[in-house]
Structure formats: C-alpha cells, structure tokens
Design a protein that fits this description.
Layout: H1 10-14, E1 17-20, E2 26-31, H2 37-45, H3 49-56, H4 65-72, E3 79-86, E4 92-100, E5 106-113, H5 122-136, E6 141-147, H6 151-159, E7 163-166, E8 173-179
Parallel strand pairs: 5-6
Antiparallel strand pairs: 1-2, 2-3, 3-4, 4-5, 6-8, 7-8
Length: 180
C-alpha cells in the first residue's frame, strides 16, 4: 500500500497553470475560492441553457447560491473546482470540477464552457487538467455522468479515452469512465 499523497500547500493552490487549446487559446487555470461566487454566477449566465442543464442535470434559468456553494467552498484536495481564464482578455472561459470519493479511488468530473468559446479546444484542455489533477491525487479512475443528449461531451470524452456505460435505473444518463 502506498502512502497517501499530501494535500497541497496554499502556495501550490494559489499558483496558476497554463493550458493551450488546439485553437491556440491560452488558459490560465487556478482553483476557485469562496470569493469567486459572483464570478461563477455571471459565468453560468453566459453558458447556454442546454449546457447548464447538462452540467447540473436539470433545467435552470439561473445558477444561484445553493448551486454555487459546492463549487466555491471546497477543501482543495478531495474536491477541487477549477477556473480557466482566457489569457487574452482575462474573462472566465470554463469551470471544471473534480470530486473524489472517500477512499480517493474515484472522482466524478464536470466541465462547463462559455458558449462563445465552444469548439475551440477548451473542453480538451479541461479534461487534460482534470486528468492531471486526478493522477496527482493518486486516483485510479474518473467518471462523468452525462445526459444521453449531450452528444458533444460524450464524443469528446470518448476521444479522450473514456468508456461509456449505461446507468441502471435511468435511461437518460450515461456514465463515462477513464482509468489510469
């Protein structure tokens, strides 16, 4: 049995990482904090209604406080919420979440991308970020629960090595899994 990986220091948390999309868009990525709630609220207003439904698995005209708290009040180890900013203008481009189980074996992931940046490789970059974070924590696999109608996400995740499985009891959802 290997020793658990230590939780990151505050200095490590505060450091930005850069990811460049296949389209050349440079993203500065950092963890989300409680102070980012208003920023995320505004961001989700710029995500298409369909993408909001896919991210939260339910229709919502507006993402409010109760849905934002789990994205902004995290322990930065078992659960991490990432914010990706377009380096060119500093605007929030994407939000990505990694939520680990108690045994630090598996994490569920979720990604949202600002509507005007879809198709520019942001999803690819966010999946790379989440895979890096999962490996850093010693996880064995990540899963994503998708609405079967979210064809773009399902296709992207399959291209990134995820395998699709049906969800018992819910014909509208599919679980995609990637092992390390």
């Amino acid at each position: 049995m290997t020793a658990p990986t230590p939780a990151p220091t505050l200095a490590e948390l505060a450091s930005k990482k850069q990811y460049t999309t296949r389209d050349g868009l440079v993203l500065d990525v950092r963890p989300a904090f409680a102070e980012d709630e208003a920023l995320l609220e505004d961001f989700f207003d710029k995500v298409s209604p369909e993408d909001r439904r896919f991210r939260f698995l339910g229709a919502s005209k507006h993402v409010g406080h109760s849905q934002l708290v789990p994205l902004t009040h995290v322990d930065h180890w078992r659960t991490e919420s990432f914010l990706a900013f377009d380096q060119a203008d500093g605007a929030l481009a994407a939000s990505a979440m990694l939520a680990c189980d108690a045994s630090m074996d598996t994490a569920e992931i979720a990604v949202s991308i600002r509507s005007d940046l879809r198709g520019r490789g942001v999803g690819w970059a966010m999946l790379d970020l989440l895979a890096d974070a999962a490996r850093d924590r010693g996880l064995k696999r990540v899963i994503s629960i998708e609405d079967r109608d979210n064809h773009a996400a399902i296709e992207l995740e399959r291209e990134k090595g995820f395998v699709a499985h049906g969800m018992d009891g819910d014909p509208h959802l599919v679980m995609l899994e990637k092992t390390f």
